[in-house]
């Protein structure tokens, strides 16, 4: 398994897609019940293969990621060959970007000297999808890129 197995809730949400996946392998509902009952290791393998397919599909569509912690914001644009990073860091521990108040402080003090901006590019390893997956596993969220684009325009104008 390349990524991670979907949760029970995710499998329930993707129930119809899983049925279609089994059908592409010519596995009927009765055969699936038999496999689960008599060949649990084969059933586990099918769940893992399906999970990897779902993850691959999701990861193929990721354009933006963000990871917000109390004193740092990391915004990523996932391009074809590399990832662009815009990061903001603050030394003031009284400010917490994960709180509504901290985010409002950021808006009000965007050009303050207490905020450090970083802008970088990084090439992917041999496996772009696995790189993105690891970032999600470490707490990054898939987004539509509003924050990234806001700060990209701000940096471009500075």
Can you characterise this structure?
The chain has 158 residues and is α+β, with helices and mostly antiparallel strands. It folds into 2 domains: 8-61; 64-157, no CATH class. It is 50% helix and 22% strand. It is built from 7 helices and 5 strands. Strands 4-3-2-1-5 form a 5-stranded antiparallel sheet, sandwiched between helices. The radius of gyration is 21 Å and the shape is elongated. α3 (29-38) packs across α4 and α4 (40-61) packs across α6. The longest helix has 22 residues, at 40-61. It has helices at residues 8-13, 15-24, 29-38, 40-61, 100-108, 128-137, 146-157, and strands at residues 64-69, 72-78, 82-90, 115-123, 141-143. 11% of the residues are buried.
Output the keywords.
158 residues; alpha+beta; 5-stranded antiparallel β-sheet; 5 strands; 50% helix; elongated
SSE map:
Layout lengths: L7 H6 L1 H10 L4 H10 L1 H22 L2 E6 L2 E7 L3 E9 L9 H9 L6 E9 L4 H10 L3 E3 L2 H12 L1
Antiparallel strand pairs: 1-2, 1-5, 2-3, 3-4
Helix pairs in contact: 3-4, 4-6
Total DSSP E strands: 5
Structural class: alpha+beta
Q: Compute the separation of the termini in Å.
A: 45 Å
Strand order of the largest sheet: 4-3-2-1-5
Helix count, per DSSP?
7
The poorly predicted ranges are: none
């Amino acid at each position: 398994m390349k990524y991670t197995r979907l949760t029970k809730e995710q499998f329930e949400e993707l129930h119809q897609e899983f049925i279609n996946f089994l059908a592409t392998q010519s596995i009927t509902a009765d055969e699936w019940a038999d496999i689960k009952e008599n060949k649990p290791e084969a059933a586990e393998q099918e769940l893992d293969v399906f999970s990897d397919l779902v993850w691959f599909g999701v990861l193929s569509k990721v354009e933006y990621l963000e990871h917000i912690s109390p004193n740092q914001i990391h915004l990523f644009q996932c391009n074809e060959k590399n990832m662009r990073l815009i990061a903001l860091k603050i030394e003031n521990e009284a400010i917490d970007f994960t709180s509504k108040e901290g985010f409002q402080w950021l808006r009000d003090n965007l050009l303050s000297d207490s905020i450090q901006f970083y802008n970088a590019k990084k090439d992917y390893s041999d496996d772009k999808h696995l790189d993105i997956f690891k970032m999600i596993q470490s707490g990054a969220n898939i987004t539509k890129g509003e924050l990234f684009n806001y700060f990209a325009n701000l940096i471009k104008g500075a």
